[in-house]
Write a structure and sequence with these properties.
The structure is a homodimer of 324-residue chains.
Chain A: H1 5-17, H2 19-22, E1 26-30, H3 36-43, E2 48-53, H4 58-67, E3 74-78, E4 90-95, H5 108-118, E5 119-126, E6 129-137, H6 140-146, H7 159-169, E7 174-176, E8 188-194, E9 205-213, E10 218-230, E11 236-238, E12 250-261, E13 266-275, E14 283-290, H8 305-323
Parallel strand pairs in A: 1-2, 1-4, 2-3, 4-5
Antiparallel strand pairs in A: 6-8, 6-10, 7-12, 9-13, 10-11, 10-12, 13-14
Helix pairs in contact in A: 1-3
Catalytic activity (chains A, B): L-arginyl-[protein] + S-adenosyl-L-methionine = N(omega)-methyl-L-arginyl-[protein] + S-adenosyl-L-homocysteine + H(+)
Protein name (chains A, B): type I protein arginine methyltransferase
GO cellular component, one term (chains A, B): nucleus
Chain lengths: 324, 324
């Protein structure tokens, strides 16, 4: 992960900003890789860091710890977090577990196992919150690169190639870089995980319906997904289109055809993320478009009169509660 | 291949420049993919194009031919060139068969089979010559990205990561973009294939020794390989560092450590490209450094006195032959 600077720097800054959580504490680094997070924890004053790594990288983690004078602090444990034994509980669990659109090929299940096995009752997860966002997008740059450029190069009609590419994309989400101007509405929060409490059962399948009001006109070609992770100090690792690009980039679920959208149109979708059969780390995405007349969630942030009314009432109640 | 513009454009320009070879002729496109080369051949006036494609792309090739009004000219044949039957011999064989460093994962064996089965006695191969070049390189950009940047980020000593990466690269050549300024000498021709005559036996293993005189000082970190293909009109598809980047980029064989080189130093190497056991399309590269005292090839372009003398004599004889 060292090569992905926004990612590594987010962890480094967050750990440094939370020295009080690490000072003289026991830290568990799950899926430590080359051990960079363990070194940050050691730099922040941890008394002991257990760096658990199942792959051959464990040897590198050990060398890195030794060359940085943390050979006594960082104990590299070669094995799966599901199998290893540790001599004590951890005050903090650090882990860089996130997959594409948060869940796909993530190590979250292992982090949960590690938490349930080794985190002290008042221990801290690092990061402690993860959020998945979605937003309708023109996918303009991707569309030009991968689909549209086939239309008439060399005086030839190669539209069949673009059509076939788009059909094949229905089977698999696309990892791509999104420009903020490609987004057609305000991003919607699809999922919020509190790492202290989340269970594997909650992650088996996640479905949510959303309606948004279009704020920028353009062809709606797919739903763009990204995530952010929040650390206990409130800082975040953000993989949004507006943030510096990470190796996760963003993920798009490409629609079969373009839908031209006008400002103030209300559009809805239902998105399901379901773990693939077989208990692996892969997810499948199902996206369906909703009619404006389909049932909206409560509350809903779209511009339909009923939703605005409900939201105003809820906001008023919240304000009164806060005052009370 | 449509998305790789230098590649597609080289074929398009060469076919257009050789209309006389295509006009009213029978053309065989081996490994046609989506059929772009077949369309170029049809545009150049071919009477009939057989587009042989083993994969599911054959359907796209058919659609592309129909949508461009060449449904009657281009006959898409679904199958392996080793298995298909064609009703007539071909005047021209076009194919985009080249792999990384020319031979690795190439389709050259299939092209040779197609040539031996279907090319008319006075038929033309398109391209007709392929050349592999090698040159010692600093691999500067790659080194900075993949190796050196690990040295001291975040105030940490992560040199172990760079060392491990370099060790792992000994097992596998690296595909990368080389800047012309990274080259430490004039490129050396390692291999020249004449497609009209080359046999699979010649391609089983290729070994060559070369000595070069260093023309630019710098750390020698690996041998950079690339190829060019030449068409009958003399035009070329060039994948050299100085040429526009293609999907092949260049390939580097990374040395275990850096060798600082001064201008006018003579360095030598022996490079072997050997087909992997099992008869597949993969090659293995073996590179060994030679001492200046090891036997030089004849002629040799390096600055050692004996080599310069021999080369001068050969050049003189050639000049006299030309005059005679």
């Amino acid at each position: 992960m060292v090569g992905d600077k926004p990612r590594t720097e987010a962890y480094r800054a967050a750990i440094e900003a939370s020295r009080h959580l690490f000072q003289d504490k026991v830290v568990l680094d799950i899926g430590a890789g080359t051990g960079i997070l363990s070194l940050f924890a050691a730099q922040a004053g941890a008394r002991r860091v257990y760096a658990v790594e199942a792959s051959g990288f464990h040897e590198l983690a050990r060398q890195n710890a030794e060359r940085n004078g943390f050979g006594d602090v960082v104990r590299v444990v070669h094995g799966r977090i599901e199998d290893v034994t540790l001599p004590e509980q951890a005050d903090v669990i650090v882990s860089e577990w996130m997959g594409f659109y948060l869940l796909h090929e993530s190590m979250l299940d292992s982090v949960i196992v590690g938490r349930d096995r080794f985190l002290a009752p008042d221990g801290v997860m690092f990061p402690d919150v993860a959020r998945l966002y979605a937003c309708p997008s023109t996918l303009a740059a991707f569309h030009c690169d991968q689909l549209q450029c086939w239309s008439r190069p060399y005086g030839l009609d190669l539209t069949a190639v673009g059509e076939a590419a788009r059909r094949s994309m229905q089977q698999a989400p696309q990892v791509l870089d999104t420009h903020p101007e490609e987004l057609l509405a305000a991003p919607e929060l699809m999922l919020e995980l509190h790492l202290q409490y989340v269970t594997p059962e909650e992650l088996a399948a996640v479905t949510c319906r959303r309606f948004v009001t279009v704020t920028r006109p353009g062809p709606y070609r797919g739903l763009c997904l990204w995530f952010e992770c929040q650390f206990p100090d409130g800082s975040r690792l953000d993989t949004a289109p507006r943030a510096p690009s990470t190796h996760w980039r963003q993920t798009a679920v490409v629609l079969p055809t373009d839908y031209p959208l006008e400002v103030d149109t209300v559009i809805g979708w239902e998105l399901t993320l379901a773990r693939e059969a077989g208990g692996g780390r892969k997810y499948r995405i199902a996206l369906s478009m909703l009619d404006e007349d389909d049932e909206h969630p409560v509350p809903c942030g779209c511009a339909v009169g009923k939703c605005r009314l409900i939201k105003a009432l809820i906001d008023k109640e919240d304000a009164e509660c806060d005052e009370g």
